[in-house]
Amino acid sequence: MFWEEEDSEKSIWHQPVTQMEPNANGAQCIKSIKKPVDYDGRSRLISEIQILKKTKSPFLCEMYECFETPEKVFLVLELLNGGELYSLIKEKGPMKRTQARYYLAQIALGLEYLHESHIMHRDLKSSNVMISRRRDAKIADFGLSKMNFPLGAKTKTFGIGTLDSMAPEMIRKEPYGHEVDYWALGVLAWEMLVGESPFNGKTREATKEKIKNERLEIPMSLSHMSAQFLKGLLTTKVEKRFGIFEIKKSNFFGKIDWEMLKRMEYRPPFNPKLKDDSDISKFDPEITLYENPWKTEDEDSEIMEINKFKEFDHPNGSPEVITLDSEDIEEEGPKIIVLN
Fold first, then answer.
1. Does pLDDT of 248 surpass 60?
2. What are phi and psi of 109, to 5 degrees?
């Protein structure tokens, strides 16, 4: 059966995909995306697929397979059923430094890997960080990311990302680089430690002014180490903003062994209380029943795989180039399908 939210943002499907081998790492999910009509939408979708295919890190969402029908593209991903970090923040409220630093360290390592792979994320936020069943943080959603972007490079592409997490140089329409991801990490750190965004304005213009003017009022409840860490990331002076070197040296992380963290040898701070690998209770329960997501109006077959990526045995393999050439389709938000 196929489950879809009323707002068409996410969906859940509970039956295994025909002819698809079960994943040794546990349950999988499928991100179902309506093929975009506009050029920018197609380019971003292709870029997201290429990034997922290229990357392999314990701190990034992993893709196992990719295929398409005439109307949709399906990305087979690992099921990160701990839910969004956003939901965890809303559920738990402000975190203790010992709790927040675990996830922030993992996200920082994910950013380090992306940057070393010449990828800038550009849309890091709590709803784009997922929690695995093991309770680890993984960066997801690379639709706005920029590939082939070496360290030290600058770009002038504006209007990218989410305003609350957007760096001041982007708002000023100045050339920007990987540093914007560390600004976004600072916003995320603030949300985790304080429980709300640091730059909430009554209007978009008010929010932009707050971001550009860097008027941070650090709550007295935060420790000196936390305050210094936030100031290091949320500085409008790009040349003084913390990068990965300063982040790893920050007292905020105490005596954390970064190599141990890479090997996943630390115990995560929260327990999502999931029954098993396929428990989806952390996803939005307001969903409605739909039929098989592969079924089209003109077709009754249970599944149709058009231009399936036959050579795509692993995200680091060599799949065929996906084509997005459908002309008469309506835009539709992405969906999530869960495979047991």
1. yes
2. -65, -35
Which residues lie across from 131 on neighbouring strands? Answer: 137
Phi-psi region of 212 (alpha: psi -120 to 50; beta: other; left: phi over 0): alpha
Q: Which CATH fold topology does 85-262 show? A: Transferase(Phosphotransferase); domain 1 (1.10.510)
165 secondary structure, DSSP code = G
Secondary structure of residue 154 in the 3-state scheme? coil
> Per the confidence metrics, is the pTM higher than 0.90?
no
Residue 135 backbone zone (phi > 0: left; psi -120 to 50: alpha; other: beta): left
Q: Which two tokens stand for residue 277?
A: 């690998």
Q: pLDDT per residue over 74-108, tens digit each?
A: 888 888 877 889 988 888 889 889 889 999 999 99
Q: Classify domain 2-80+275-339 at the CATH class level.
A: alpha beta
Total count of residues recorded for the chain: 340
Residues designated as active site: 123
Q: Is-contact 59 110, C-beta < 8 A?
A: yes
CA-CA distances (angstroms) from residue 206 to 181, 199, 209, 210, 215? 22, 9, 5, 6, 12
How many angstroms separate the CA atoms of 274 and 283, rounded?
A: 12
Do the beta carbons of residue 234 and residue 183 sit within 8 Å? yes
